[in-house]
Amino acid sequence: MDKMTKLNRSFSLYLSLVLIVLCIGAFTITSKAADSYWDSNTIPSTRQKDLLYDDAELLSASEQEDLTKRLNEVSNRWDCTIAILTVDTPINSIQDFADDYFDYNGMGADHNGNGILLVLNMDDRSYWFSTSGTAISAFTDYGLSKMFDKMSSDLGDNYYHDAFVTYTEVCDDYLEMYSKGTPYDVGVKQPKDVVKGLLLSFLAALLVALVPIFVMASHLKSVTAKHSAKGYQAHDGLHMRVHRDTYLRSHVTKTEIPRDNDRSGGFSGGSSTHMSSSGSTHGGGGGHF
Length: 289
Prior knowledge:
This protein is an alpha/beta fold.
């Protein structure tokens, strides 16, 4: 019995040691990953990284050049940093990682702390949008969700350049709307969506109008002109008879059409915020693709 007790104790001690080693290893991996992306846990006065850092090597050289140009143009146009980071490493919390990368690399230094960073982690195919400054209000929770919806198809098909171009263009649209006093949020339509809707409505109305005309025109192909009035006279002459319409009854059935009262997908509007390890306020959202 004593031997069995000693064996159980030895096994428990061994198992505890294994778990401790695994935890230390995981912490070390994460710490090394973080240390390689920023120099210290202090916010620098100047930006330390490029607007595009493709550490996961998802893009060609020409694609990186194209995206960097786009990111700089949109960032300077709206005085708001638009940045992208791709990684392929284990991360405990992609939200914390994205916020710290933004803060400790001074990503908002060029534009008074205003900015949005998209982090794509290929290790677990996760993503996170980290927003700061005025970008927190410009990029609402609902807006970020819709932004990802527009990118998700290309991300799923590994068309990363196309997805990042969409990200840059949507950022441009959202910041323009914010500059006019109406950030994209629940119940708000983008100007491009309104124009697209009007154009589709016009084309649909035009199609509905043209179809009957073409149908009637096709029926007239067998019609030929007559050279005398006799050609238009009925052989049996014209006979008038009494015609009477008698109203009997009417029956109207009404069915209520269910209303879609929840078009927000569960979003209540606005931007949720949290505090990063540096003590800065960030907004954002993310998930997996």
